[in-house]
Design brief:
- By secondary structure, the protein is an alpha/beta fold.
- It contains 12 helices and 13 strands.
- α2 runs antiparallel to α3 and α2 crosses α4 (62-75).
- The two termini are 39 Å apart.
């Protein structure tokens, strides 16, 4: 656990933290400050940032946040970063209530919270992730249209033979309501259409889907690209387009989301510093892609809170 990792590091001293803080500058959470004076720079270098950063939210990019947090704590041993991945809805609710300092989400806060809650939060877009359908190893279908996906996940198509596969009942593994991955997939497949979107099972986290897909025949579900595991299941095409990051950058592959990290407008210095680190070259220039995500800077299109996609 990350909070346990902190206890191992808190005796390492301040040296690593000094180097990190000089580069961070500790700008406000979502606000641009005036340029630091030389005296302010000197003061920032004189002490390390300290405190506790907590988060909850999307499980889709929890591994990215955890890996970045380990690196951040290595450089800042007086900061503890810890959290969970209980779904975008829970993360947004928690940061709005002040029970965590960061809420991680696959969706814009506007889609989950009331307007008076959103106005007190600041959004940090840290990456983009593709998401797509996955099927059991024994399923012989490797491409589905959006209409076919709509039929399967609405219960209108119930046998694999209806979409070119074997004569076998389709087992639908869904995510629970509140999941940002579910919301992204549902919006891409159903649009604004009201559909009873259920499955044979509803799972809490991306890792639960991985496990269940690896042990269930004739199943279909959906995952973010970073959770694809071809040793357990197969990721399939949608409308003939392969689920690859390169196809997400120009919206050729339609199922994708921006990964958000929200904090309050009056966030503490440790939270500000960690969010700055998430947006730094150390993370954006290497770690994001290593963890299976797409840097925001690589995108040729953008998506707004309503789901509308437009060219940059």
């Amino acid at each position: 656990m990350l909070d346990q990792a902190y206890s191992r590091r808190q005796f390492l001293g301040l040296a690593g933290g000094l180097a990190s803080i000089v580069g961070l500058g500790l700008v406000g959470c979502g606000g641009s400050n005036a340029a630091n004076t030389a005296a302010e720079d000197s003061a920032a270098a004189a002490e390390s940032v300290s405190g506790e950063v907590t988060y909850d939210g999307a499980s889709s990019f929890q591994a990215l946040v955890e890996t970045a947090a380990e690196k951040f704590m290595d450089a800042n041993p007086d900061v503890s970063v810890s959290g969970s991945g209980n779904g975008s809805g829970k993360g947004l609710t928690a940061v709005a209530a002040g029970t965590v300092t960061i809420g991680n989400s696959d969706v814009f806060a506007e889609t989950k919270l009331e307007a008076d809650q959103v106005k007190n939060l600041v959004d940090h877009e840290v990456a983009v992730v593709g998401m797509g359908p996955v099927v059991s190893k024994n399923v012989k279908v490797d491409d589905l249209s959006l209409e076919q996906l709509k039929g399967i996940f609405s219960g209108q198509i119930t046998n694999w033979k209806e979409v070119g596969g074997d004569d076998a009942k389709i087992v639908v593994l869904n995510r629970k309501a509140g999941s940002g991955t579910r919301a992204t997939f549902e919006a891409a497949v159903f649009g604004d259409e009201a559909v009873d979107f259920k499955g044979d099972a509803e799972l809490d986290k991306s890792g639960d889907v991985q496990t269940q897909m690896g042990s269930t025949d004739n199943a279909i579900s959906y995952l973010d690209f970073s959770h694809f595991d071809d040793s357990k299941f197969n990721a399939i095409k949608v409308e003939g387009v392969e689920p690859k990051s390169a196809n997400v950058t120009d919206d050729s592959f339609k199922i994708w989301a921006t990964e958000h990290m929200y904090c309050s407008k009056d966030a503490d210095e440790a939270t500000k510093a960690f969010l700055e680190f998430m947006l730094s070259d150390d993370v954006q220039g290497k770690l994001v892609e290593e963890q299976g995500f797409i840097p925001v800077s690589a995108m040729k299109v953008v998506k707004d809170a309503s789901g509308k996609v437009s060219a940059k």
